[in-house]
Structure formats: C-alpha cells, structure tokens
Amino acid sequence: MEFSKILINWYLQNKRELPWRKTNDPFKIWLSEIMLQQTRVEQGMPYYFRFIVAFPTVFDLAAASQQEVLKLWQGLGYYSRARNLHDTAKYVSNELGGKFPDSYKGLLKLKGIGDYTASAIASICYDEPVAVVDGNVYRVLARYFGSATPINSSEGIKEFKALATELLDRDNPSAFNQALMEFGALQCKPKNPLCVTCPFNNSCLALRDNRISELPVKLKKGKIRHRYFNYLVFNSEENTTLLHQRKGKGIWNGLYEFPLIETEKQLTAAEFLSEEELQQKVGANAVVRLYNEKPVVHKLSHQHIYARFWIIEPQKVFENAIPISKIAKYPVPVLIQNFLNEYEPADY
Known about the structure:
alpha+beta, five-stranded mixed sheet, DNA repair, EC 3.2.2.31, hydrolase
C-alpha cells in the first residue's frame, strides 16, 4: 500500500537511534515497551540502561528481590508496571525456561502485557503481522482519517485498531509499526506538528479541514481526588527513623514511606498536634515540628496529594527503627525522595 511505503521511507530517513532498535531479543524489547508505557523516551532510556546492566537476562531479573526492582524503577512512576515486570520475569524463567511466547496470543497471557505490548513484541521480534496502537498511533490515525471518535472509548479502541490493521504492511510489520509510532513522536506531534514537511499533507483530512488541534478526541477523566498526607519523620538521638512499606491496591504498593497520618482536609498545626492518632504514633513527650508550612503538591493521574512533613524527636526507642543512613537502600515514592534530597537531620 502507498501509505506504508511512504511511512517506512520516512522512518528510514528520520528514525532515532535507540538501543532497543538494535536487537530483536524479546527480553529487551519487552523491557523497553513496559518502561515506555506512559513514559517519554528521554526519561525512560536511563532506566533501560540501568536495568540491562543490573539484569542482563530474564533469569537475573527473576532472581532479584521486589525491593531491588522497585528501587531501580524509582522515579518512573506507575509502579504496578515494575511489579508486573518482576512477576512476569519469574513466570517466564520458572515456567517457560526463560523463553518468551513467540506469538501475539501467547504474549497476551503474560501478566502486565496487553494488546499494545503483545503486538509490539510479536511484530518486532517475530514478524507477526499484528498492528500496534499506542498514543502516537492514535494521534496519527485520528488526524489522517479525520476521526473524532474518542480514543479512550471502547468504540475508539476498536476503530483505531481496525484502521491500523488495514494499513499494516504485512510483509514488514516490524518496520511499519515502529515507523508509525516514531512518526507520531517526531512528525505528527501533539502540539506544533510538522505539517509543512509531512509526507501525508496532501491526504491528511485533519489538515485539509483545519482540525489538527482538535484531534484526537479524548474523553475527560473522572473527578480528581484530593488527599492530605502528614508524614512523620522520626529523628532519634541514635539517628534512627521509621519506614513503613505500603500494602494493598492503592498507590505506591510495595514502596516505603514514613509513618503517615491522612486527614480529610489540611489541618492547622494546632489541630494536627491535638490529633489522637498522632499521640499514639509518636509516644509521650515527643517533640513535633512542622518542616514545611506550605504543602508539597504531588499530582498523579486521578489524585492530587498535599503533603506536609513533621519532624519527630521521640522519647522512646522503636524496635523496628532503621539508621537514617540506610534509607537510600529502600525504594520510595518521588515525593519522599525529593524531601530526602533537601532534608538534613543534623539541623533538627
């Protein structure tokens, strides 16, 4: 098809030299694809290199502890990706002898792998003719075909998968899929796309109808939840502190943080100091100081966290305390890491 020829020709002339494009090793392709979900290439590449050095094979990744994996992942966000990555590595190593499934349907059975990732691995590693649809592809197709169907609706997911499949170069699915994603990243960008030099500017319906800025259409997210976190930063005379691991299905599962008191609203210092839960956590006669009057605002996709840190000088010894110097070994949310980067215990 003319579209695929033009696209692949553009790709060969304009593609970025990325490390995972120099291999068809499914382990490395899988790792890169998981990392680049909801992450820019520039942000994800240093993590990719660190993981490859730490875990050269799927067996090495499987043998690591979850804490090691989360620590290396720290800062990339969406930590369920890291937990699923680790679980899948263990499954592939222990149950499949270290060999990834060699088909789209087989890959779909692995934890953390959906349509997009299965299509990418299957086409890039095994030349299976399955179309990839990611954020970049949605944008290119919505503009090229002038489609206002919301890309995050069930109808849109089906429509754009069908369009990508129709355009797919079945003789060269690997190059086609990578070309279409790269085209969206470099040429048909979200803002200020390079329409003047676009090889499809004579056939793009959005450009013809002056609708580039309107497409693609995306349904608005639900209401943002606002949460108020009060972290208790224990700083004992022995230079020890307390860290707790987050459990359950909420945010940051598996990561560590200081003891937390969450309130329904932001309290004044006097109101917080009178909280019964605070007294129970810090013990009698503890000295409590507010570190930051203005909350640190940490924005996630569906919630905004307003965090304040309280420095605690306890009068009792906690059995599960750890040396402050050891905190760096624990995987923590970016919110906590940013605090640690500026906090100097000696000042308190």
